């Protein structure tokens, strides 16, 4: 609880009346518990009513402190932290190199070209456009998309974004080549029989 009182000057005619005397122009001090600390200081105020209002404001701020907004994480910062985490998990050098290329070279450049400086600014439509620019084969594009998804899962788990925009990006369709039937020469050579024996064993 905070208490205000007048600190009378030596020349004040009301000095003997104590700190609770209101009808003089001496400065007002503050003393008491404010949150977790004990304070004793001058308010720089001479009006008793203004000092009371100041105390109410201080106590309200102590009970209901304003939330401090943290700056959003930049794309470069998020990529650097993700790669440090990947290194700490001791993934293979080959996979780490692919992560670096996908994120540092491709995603970071895409974000720069589109004026996307912070991770929360990258949305689903941006990632669809990003995917549309890949020249990979379908199977390679699927693997690249998984690297992007793992990066944004990391961002979501870190609390930088509320949802993973890459999770809604559909993977390219991978079509397996059809198995052709044996021709007459292969059938006569016994290849058909050996294949059947392998599958039946």
Q: Which features characterize this protein?
A:
201 residues, disordered C terminus, mainly alpha, DNA polymerase, domain 1, single chain
Quick structural overview:
With 201 residues, this protein is mainly alpha-helical. The protein has 7 helices and 3 strands.
> What's the alpha carbon Rg, rounded to whole Å?
35 Å
- Assign the CATH topology of the largest domain: DNA polymerase, domain 1
CATH class bucket of the largest domain? Mainly Alpha
Question: What order do the helices and strands follow?
Answer: EEEHHHHHHH
Gap between N and C termini, in Å?
86 Å
Mean pLDDT: 84
Shape annotation: rod-shaped
Helix fraction bin: 40-55%
In what order do the strands lie side by side in the largest sheet? 1-2-3
Largest sheet: 3 strands, antiparallel
What count of structural domains?
Answer: 2
> Based on helices, strands and strand pairing, what is the structural class?
mainly alpha
What is the CATH H-level superfamily of the largest domain? Answer: Tyrosine recombinase, N-terminal domain
Question: Topology, pairings included?
Answer:
Elements: E1 2-6, E2 28-34, E3 37-45, H1 48-63, H2 75-88, H3 93-113, H4 124-132, H5 138-157, H6 184-189, H7 191-200
Antiparallel strand pairs: 1-2, 2-3
Helix pairs in contact: 2-3, 3-5
């Amino acid at each position: 609880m905070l208490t205000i009182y007048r600190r009378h000057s030596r020349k004040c005619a009301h000095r003997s009346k104590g700190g609770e005397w209101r009808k003089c122009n001496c400065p007002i001090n503050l003393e008491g518990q404010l949150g977790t600390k004990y304070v004793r200081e001058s308010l720089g105020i001479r009006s008793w009513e203004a000092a009371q209002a100041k105390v109410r404001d201080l106590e309200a701020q102590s009970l209901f402190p304003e939330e401090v907004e943290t700056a959003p994480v930049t794309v470069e910062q998020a990529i650097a932290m993700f790669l440090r985490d990947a290194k700490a998990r001791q993934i293979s050098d080959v996979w780490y190199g692919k992560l670096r290329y996908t994120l540092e070279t491709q995603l970071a450049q895409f974000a720069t070209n589109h004026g996307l400086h912070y991770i929360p600014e990258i949305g689903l439509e941006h990632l669809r456009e990003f995917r549309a620019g890949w020249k990979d084969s379908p199977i390679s594009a699927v693997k690249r998309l998984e690297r992007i998804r793992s990066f944004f899962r990391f961002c979501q788990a870190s609390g930088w974004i509320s949802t993973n925009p890459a999770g809604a990006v559909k993977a390219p369709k991978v079509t397996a080549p059809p198995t052709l039937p044996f021709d007459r020469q292969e059938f006569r050579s016994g290849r058909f029989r050996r294949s059947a024996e392998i599958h039946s064993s």
